Amino acid sequence: MALTTVATAQNGRTKFATDMYQAKHEMIIEELGLTMTQQKQFMPLYEQMEREIYQVNRNARALAKEIENKKNPSDRDYEAAASALSSTRIREGEIEAKYFDKFSKILSKKQLFLLKQTEAKFTREMLKKRKK
Fold first, then answer.
1. Angle between helices 36-69 and 2-32 in degrees, nearest 10
2. How many other CB atoms are there within 10 angstroms of residue 48's CB atom?
3. Cβ atoms of 26 and 122 closer than 8 Å
4. Can you tell me the distance from the alpha carbon of 86 to that of 64, in angstroms, rounded to the nearest whole number?
5. Helix axes 75-103, 109-131, angle to 10 degrees
6. Is 46 helix (H, G, I), strand (E, B) or coil?
7. What single string gives the DSSP state of each residue in 23-83?
8. Cβ–Cβ < 8 Å for 12, 99
9. pLDDT in tens, 26-48
10. Could you tell me if 112 and 103 are in contact, meaning their C-beta atoms sit under 8 angstroms apart?
């Protein structure tokens, strides 16, 4: 029964994450005014970028969790975890820069600008919904 509860909770988180990504992607398509051709070229790249960023954050969180669960972490352990957590933004930026070049071959200059605006707008809306 406990395993069923855990599986249900995980499925709930998975469904929430899937719904959130779907809503974000729909907002991007709408706000940028992507054509069907652009959607077919852009969205797979965008999803790939999201997966890479997710993995960077997941790895840093896993390392931090590992340190939290250690009985007697060393200073070297703390330093490695702090460094990993601190460098996540740098890695995210590097990943975004790599994909920006790819996106610029598909999107107009205005759409490139609107992409960042739309991502920020989506985040603000999600935070507002969370407050409620």
1. 140
2. 13
3. no
4. 11
5. 130
6. helix
7. HHHHHHHHHHT--HHHHHHHHHHHHHHHHHHHHHHHHHHHHHHHHHH-SS--HHHHHHHHH
8. no
9. 999 999 999 999 999 999 999 99
10. yes
Amino acid at 91: R
How far is the C-alpha of 73 from the C-alpha of 84, rounded, in Å?
Answer: 16
Residue with tokens 């729909």: 26
The token pair at 68 is 């939290």
CA angle 127, 107, 19 (to 5 degrees): 35
| pTM of the predicted protein model | 0.80
- Contacts of 31 by beta carbon, 8 Å cutoff, 6+ apart: 114, 117, 118, 121
From the number of C-beta atoms within 10 Å of its C-beta (0-12, 13-18, 19+), residue 77 rates as: middle
Average model confidence (pLDDT) across the chain: 88
